[in-house]
Amino acid sequence: MSRAVDLPTFPFVASAEPEDDAMGGRLLATAPITRARLASGVEVWVALGHDVVRSVLTDTRFSRTASLDPAAPRVAPGLDIPDVLVTMDGAEHARVRKLLTKAFTPRMIEQLRPSIEATVEDLLDEVERHGPPIDLVEHFTMPLPVRTICQLLGVPYEDQERFRDLSDRTRSSTAYSLEEVLTATFQLQQYMRDLVAAKREHPADDLTSELATAADERGTLTEDQLVKNLLLVLIAGFDTTLNQLSNSVVALLRRPAQFEQLRQEPGLVPGAVEELLRFLMLSPTGMLIRIATDDLDLGGERIRAGEGVLALANVANRDPAVFDDPEELDLTRVGASRHLSFGAGPHFCFGAQLARQELQSAITGLLRRFPTLRAAGPLEDIPWKEGLLLRGPKSVLVEW
C-alpha cells in the first residue's frame, strides 16, 4: 500500500457520544472504501458503504485468523486472541460456533422470554421503590443483561462487579495500557477456569456445565477453547446490550415525542429497536479487522493479499443508498432491520436474538411503568465513557 501524507487517522470518531460520526459520513460521500492510518502509523482499508461492508463480512477471502499474525495491523491492544470463535475461520469456526450456539437458538431465546420479562419487572420494582432521581444505568440497563447472561452461563451474580471492571479493561482502545489489558484478560480467563472446575464438580443446567461435559466426554473443545469462548460469551453477552440499551434510553429522552409515540403504540417497539440498532453508533472501531488472503477488487479499489480491512457497520447503517434520511431517527422506518450492527456472514452475532429480546422487553417495560420518564438534569451533562471499544453513558439520572 503506497504511503500518503493526507490519510485520515482511524478511528474517525473523536466524540464519545453514539450519535456522532460526521467524518465517516463525509468519507462515504466520497467513496465506499477509503484508506486510513492507525495510531501506530500502519495503513489499512476502511469499508464504509453498506454493500462493501457486507462484502467484507461475508467474503471468506477476508480472514480473522490471519489477524493473529504478529505483523498484522492492530486497532486496539489485546483483541486478537487464539482459540476464540472471533479469530477462527472455516471449518474450525463452524464446529466451535455450532457448540456455542446451542443456547441461542430462536426456540431457546423464546423460552427465555418469561425469565427476561420477569427480570425487567423486578428491576423496575426496585427502581420504583428507590424513587427519583435514580441512575438508570446502575439500577436497570446494566443489571438486566448481566443477570441474563449470568443465568445462561451459570455465573454467580455476586461476581458481576468483578468481571464488569475487568471486562472494561479488555475492551479498551486507549483507556488502558497493553499491560493492563493483558493482565485483565489473564484474570478473567483464570476466573472462567475456576468456574469450569466448579461446574465439573457440581454440574447444573447451564451452558458452562454443558460445554464442560462436551469437552470432557466428547473431546469437542480443548481446555483453552472452552475457557476463552465461554469468556467471550460472558463479556459480549452483557457489554454490548448494556451500552445499546443505555444509548437507546438517552436517544428517546432526547426525543420526547418519539418516546410518547412508543408509549401509546407499544406494537412499534420491535421495529423501534431495529431502528435504534441502525441509528446508534455503538462501536467507533467497527467490526474486528480482517486480513485479505488474496488480491481482490472491492468498492472500486484493488486490495492486496496481506492488507488489513476494517468494516464500519456504523457508517454503512447510515448509507443513503440504502436508507432514506439516514441521519434521522425514525421509529416507524420500513427496512431498518437491514442494518449491519450484528454483522453478517459466518461471524454474524449468534447472540442477536437474545439482545433483541432484552432490548424489546426493557423498553416496553420502561415505557409502561414510567410514562413520564425524563432526564433529571440537562441531557448535555450526561457523562460518557471514553477510550473503550463500545460507547455508552457512565450514568443516566432520571425522574418521573
Automatic annotation (TrEMBL):
<keyword id="KW-0408">Iron</keyword>
<comment type="similarity">
    <text>Belongs to the cytochrome P450 family.</text>
</comment>
<dbReference type="GO" id="GO:0020037">
    <property type="term" value="F:heme binding"/>
</dbReference>
<keyword id="KW-0503">Monooxygenase</keyword>
<dbReference type="InterPro" id="IPR036396">
    <property type="entry name" value="Cyt_P450_sf"/>
</dbReference>
<dbReference type="GO" id="GO:0005506">
    <property type="term" value="F:iron ion binding"/>
</dbReference>
<dbReference type="GO" id="GO:0016705">
    <property type="term" value="F:oxidoreductase activity, acting on paired donors, with incorporation or reduction of molecular oxygen"/>
</dbReference>
<protein>
    <submittedName>
        <fullName>Cytochrome P450</fullName>
    </submittedName>
</protein>
<keyword id="KW-0349">Heme</keyword>
<keyword id="KW-0560">Oxidoreductase</keyword>
<dbReference type="InterPro" id="IPR017972">
    <property type="entry name" value="Cyt_P450_CS"/>
</dbReference>
<keyword id="KW-0479">Metal-binding</keyword>
<dbReference type="Pfam" id="PF00067">
    <property type="entry name" value="p450"/>
</dbReference>
<dbReference type="GO" id="GO:0004497">
    <property type="term" value="F:monooxygenase activity"/>
</dbReference>
<dbReference type="InterPro" id="IPR002397">
    <property type="entry name" value="Cyt_P450_B"/>
</dbReference>
<dbReference type="InterPro" id="IPR001128">
    <property type="entry name" value="Cyt_P450"/>
</dbReference>
